[in-house]
Amino acid sequence: MRRDLLFLKDIINSMNKIFNYIEKMTKEDFKKDDLTIDAVLRNIEIIGEAANKLSKEIYEENENEE
């Protein structure tokens, strides 16, 4: 369970980073900014990696959550 908490923290941290990168950008500004695109994509990768490492139990305990 402790490992799951660390992975969940990684997910939340990456989500917050993405939000901070794009919160003041328009869609058009984002599409033109390769550096921000790369940063967002990297954090999406981190989210995916952390989600894949979560235990089956965490999914089973939260299967009805949306």
Describe this structure in words.
By secondary structure, the protein is mainly α. The protein has one domain. It has helices spanning 2-22, 27-32, 34-53, 56-61.
What would the average pLDDT be, to the nearest integer? 95
The proportion of residues forming helix, as a percent range, comes to over 70%
Instruction: Report the span from N to C terminus.
Output: 21 Å
- Succession of helices and strands: HHHH
Q: What fraction strand? A: under 5%
Backbone shape: elongated
Low-pLDDT runs: none
Task: List descriptors.
66 residues; mainly alpha
Quick summary of this structure?
The protein has 66 residues and is an all-alpha fold.
In terms of topology, how is this protein built?
Elements: H1 2-22, H2 27-32, H3 34-53, H4 56-61
Helix pairs in contact: 1-3
